[in-house]
């Protein structure tokens, strides 16, 4: 084993670098609001200060009085800080006498089980007061007066009114009786904007340039993820090998080489080999050579009981004569994802291990012999970071390990971390020294400050693009560093396009010119605009994310974004293992604690549905233990597919709760990867070596070219034409034109496929024809169902098709196209064949939901942009074969400006014919006794498009948490469906659509015995069509509040055009008419006499139709004592915020004497 590589001098140098990073940060980058305009070029970033900032001071000198400190002090002039909305002191009971020095100094021996939770108080800054000598931030709250005094470097923390901070330290009453705490270089810590969780990797990268980690978080490069460089690929693979050895506890050569054998053949392993152009055999050779030391490591360090004599633990802090030995005795976890809202950090730890450290002190008098005059043995957990590169104990590694130590202290009692270098076989102990931690956290605060600036500016003015500029620290202008910087493309692009800086004189002016010289004004504007719109989209993600820690599970559950108090269902056995996605490794079923009680709200009442991404946590500290998505959801249970094992025993031990009491919270998670990939794709258009062709077509709107075939071509083309002619058989003129245009397109052709015009047919024909001509096709849409609708028509295609995406979301019948369904590739060649040879690749793409971003123009689709600029590239498909004339008229008048035409007479006259109408007559006789009742009217063949006004019924909407539903309307829909079925209409002919998720859930529940009926949101209805479509508009209230969704006319239109023969829209005319867009709709409907007014109590006219399934909700019988449901509905708005439970309606009991008796007995 090589000698320890760190000397005391090197150690000191490391400290000083880290701290100098800190001091520079405080002095170099003043307020982010300061002008970033170029000043004179700097020779060295650390010596030169471009802004009017204070001169650097010697590190150890005390702070000079503020008055002389700087002409431009930090911008806070705030008095008082609003305090402690959440006091986390409860979490830290008994920690009052905690000493930071003690916690962070590893040498004092302490019980490893002592709580590591320093007191942490979450405060909101109310005002800041700068006094002489030191900046004093004072805080108070409505309940407690609090003051936070920032000394030393902390005084430069950027804060303003309204900012959230975590104060780590104990408040004590000061002379004036106010609870106060001093944050100094020696004691206590302040975390600014703790809800922004920065990664340990980002922070450890920040020492040279603050701009770099911020840019790389904005733009996540595809290449850095999949591991494009060989050393990254080997590194990732070796990580996996070491992790597997740790898991299995085996370190023999045979085992290691079998692991290597496996690792290179996994799909992800193979695909990274494809990217670096290396074959399996060469990869194995390389990895085996690199893995030599792993076996030695295992023999030396993996040990039960006391450490071996040669298991040296490198401790750079060791005093003369001190020696440490290490035995790793157990593995806690690998790849633990840790989020810490206390430190404002997150990170993934390679492994968490238990280790025994023996510390020996050699007697100074017997230097020649090692005398264990003082030997202590301590067992404690450690974060274990694996480094596979040749670089040993680099400063970044140490910083990262310290941060992991902090992160892990959220879950276990840890005080230092282990760095294992596979190349040098060294294991280094990295204590979390206060000075270094403070430096790192200051850098964290600074970076968080910049990120917060971005977010705030956007909140202040949503669409004001101009404000986007000042949200990155300045460039460091160091030619040597910037030249080698891996985000320099993005850095220069932001400088030019977003920050609008012209650089002709700085030391990096050459780099700047090389990277941005080609950008025109419109390029810059385009990038700037779209970059900001992407950021808008991101904002909500951050907002919802932090609810995980700032909001209790029950509170969040009330908002429909969480399932609280869930327990693991042990009885559940997941279905036989299928090849799963990376994020679906384990399957679990959860039920509410205590099972079905009166209190248990239906799990269906909320924003969470099948397919949604979730995180699983145990309050309060085990956040995001595992992530995954909802596979199945019923009122009482939820089945999740997740990425990490949930080991109840371990979780119970960590939370110190008895196993059966471990309560999970399942939170809706927002977008796994965020928008950084989208931003990266955007940026790539503008890079020097970027996608010039698309830049020209999309940004510069270059005219697309078409190469129309010459009629008198040679024979070969004649042959082709024959086959092509066959493909065109049966197509109408529009469809043929579309086909021709695509075949002639050199750049792009656009087909505007209005509803029912045979888009699917054309797309399928296009794919076949393009493949026949030797082209490759990427098939994509926003929704899985739209992609799969096309693939279902290509099931017997003779060419290869690759369907990418989460297998659980792919239509069962097209599973055979997924990678998972193929024989596992065994070599790079095989994988390459599987991935590269299918001429058709099908996958979904990202869609944009956010309304602010829409206002800014984010919803101007690429299609719109291109078709507006080049109408000649567009073909309209105008002949539609779906809707009858009435339904078509409706969408023509409202959306398509009469461009739609019926494809045939037969289509135009289409009506829904009830094969067993006589059954209905019998039903009327026994209930309403009326052959002209509303159901008769709606089901008449002549009634093809109708708005059914519920105003007189009445049918008011109500709230479940913040979700809206309409129970009476749901019953009306249900009764209509039942009548259709009674009349002989098949279930698969009927579709029910609502814009509201909660209404969908209600309807699904009512119609649960009719699984053939599709109940869909407007978005999911895309690509479907049904003979009869029933739409439930839901909104019905006195204030005329129609909500955003109804205003989104495009969604309504999508729903309307799903109907072939009959369209029934239930809604409140008086409420909906207040939306201008719908007003037009009502004028048309009234004009055509297509409005039908339901009589009062219409839903009670047909006893035999009253929902039977409601009895399945009878677990809530306790609610029967509630007031008359009618009056209750009218009052729904007054208690809109309290979640409502499904209740048993007295009318239902009237209809069922047996049930009534039962209920009366309670
Ligand atoms: S190019 Fe230079 S200034 Fe820009 S991020 Fe990289 S190191 Fe920082
Ligand atoms: Zn009737």
TrEMBL record:
Gene Ontology, cellular component aspect: nucleus
Cofactor entry: [4Fe-4S] cluster
Keyword Coiled coil attached: no
Broad EC category: hydrolase
E.C. number(s) listed in UniProt: 3.6.4.12
Annotated stretches, region: Disordered: 25-82
Biased composition (Low complexity): 58-69
Pfam families membership: AAA_11, AAA_12, Dna2
A GO term, aspect molecular function: DNA binding
Name used for this protein in its record: DNA replication ATP-dependent helicase/nuclease DNA2
Keyword terms: 4Fe-4S, ATP-binding, DNA damage, DNA repair, DNA replication, DNA-binding, Endonuclease, Helicase, Hydrolase, Iron, Iron-sulfur, Metal-binding, Multifunctional enzyme, Nuclease, Nucleotide-binding, Nucleus
UniProt-listed PANTHER family: DNA-BINDING PROTEIN SMUBP-2, DNA2/NAM7 HELICASE FAMILY MEMBER
Reactions catalysed according to its record: ATP + H2O = ADP + phosphate + H(+)
GO term, biological process aspect, one: DNA repair
Main location: nucleus
Keyword Iron-sulfur: yes
DNA2/NAM7 helicase helicase domain boundaries: 731-835
Localization (cell): Nucleus
Span of domain DNA replication factor Dna2 N-terminal: 141-354
Family annotation (InterPro entries): Coronavir_polyprotein_1ab, DNA2/NAM7-like_C, DNA2/NAM7_AAA_11, DNA_replication_fac_Dna2_N, P-loop_NTPase, PDDEXK-like_dom_sf, SF1_C_Upf1
Start and end residues of each DNA2/NAM7 helicase-like C-terminal domain: 859-1069
Residue ranges with Basic residues bias: 39-52
Organism field: Punctularia strigosozonata (strain HHB-11173)
Family listed: Belongs to the DNA2/NAM7 helicase family.
